[in-house]
Amino acid sequence: MLQFIAAAVCVVVLTACGGGKKVTEAAAIVQPDYKLTTVATGSGTVAAAGDLITFKFTGYLYDSTKSDFKGSLVETSADFSGGTYTATVGVGALLTGWDRSLLGMQPGGKVTVILPAAYAYGSSSRDADKTKGYPAIPANSPMVYDFEMVNVTKGVYIVSTPAPSTTTTLSETVGTGDAVVANGNTVTVRYTGWLYDGTRTNRKGTQFDTNTASTDTALSVVVGSSSVVTGFSTGMIGMKVGGTRTIVIPASEAYGTTVKYDSSGVVLIPANSALVFDITVETIK
Predict the structure, then answer these.
(1) Which one, of 113, 122, 239, 232, lies nearest residue 182 by Cα?
(2) Minimal CB count within 10 Å: which of 20, 81, 258, 275?
């Protein structure tokens, strides 16, 4: 035992004095230039800023050793309903490189693009998706995408309104009775949640959750507790039974940089997403 302790002390001393193995810093990732290659020319309506587009995509980590620069598959629109993704282009709702690449495309058009990290996820990273077998996306990763334009709807929304910095009420129908929601109350509510879309007049983007069906159970919340995100609690304060509100919750009062997935591993709420909720209060205790 004394010999074991002495050996352990030697290891500690060597480490403290610079002995043993050196820890080397990871080499900086060399960033490729942005490059777009047209694979197929489409026809019809040309996608412009403010248009609502539906498209397919497949994303790969950039690999300079491959002839097509496509490394590991990390994401695809095949994981979404219908195998496509719909968004407003050219208003900041998509990654910078996606906007740049999809603008000017026509239905049926196909392109392959190389994106430096600044045009993709930048310094953000994503953990491996074990459900789908996707590897992690390290910070500062350049990417390669195949895009196919499916449909373009002209001039849906032009101007994007940024989300507020604090939870804000957009509209309200006042309820009845003397009871008013306050911190510490136990409240049951019905709700529907959407991703915030500043290009829409009602700010409601993709719906990610609801409990409004007759077979659903009302959500019970202790106002001010950690059972729901901060903005959800804040947004209910002052409501009465039967009252409804539409609120906008900034990312800082929602899930912040955390990504939320459904049971099959599909992204429901991306990192840094502002949210919109319709809330109806059923009971207050």
Answers:
(1) 239
(2) 81
Does the model's pTM come out above 0.70?
A: no
Cβ proximity of 277 and 246 under 8 Å: yes
Tokens linked to 99? 């906007």
Q: Which pLDDT score, from 0 to 100, does residue 62 have?
A: 97
Of the candidates 49, 144, 56, the residue with the CA atom closest to the CA atom of residue 108: 56
Question: 61 forms bridges with which residues in the sheet?
Answer: 143
Contact criterion met (CB below 8 Å) for 241 and 175: yes
**H or E, element range at 9:** helix 2-16
Distance CA 179, CA 285 (A): 8
Running along the chain, 285 residues long, what does each successive block of 10 average in pLDDT? 34 39 56 95 91 95 96 94 88 88 96 95 90 93 97 71 92 94 97 89 89 95 95 96 97 93 81 94 97
Residue corresponding to tokens 């809330």: 279
Q: In the numeric block, which tokens belong to residue 211? A: 């409990």
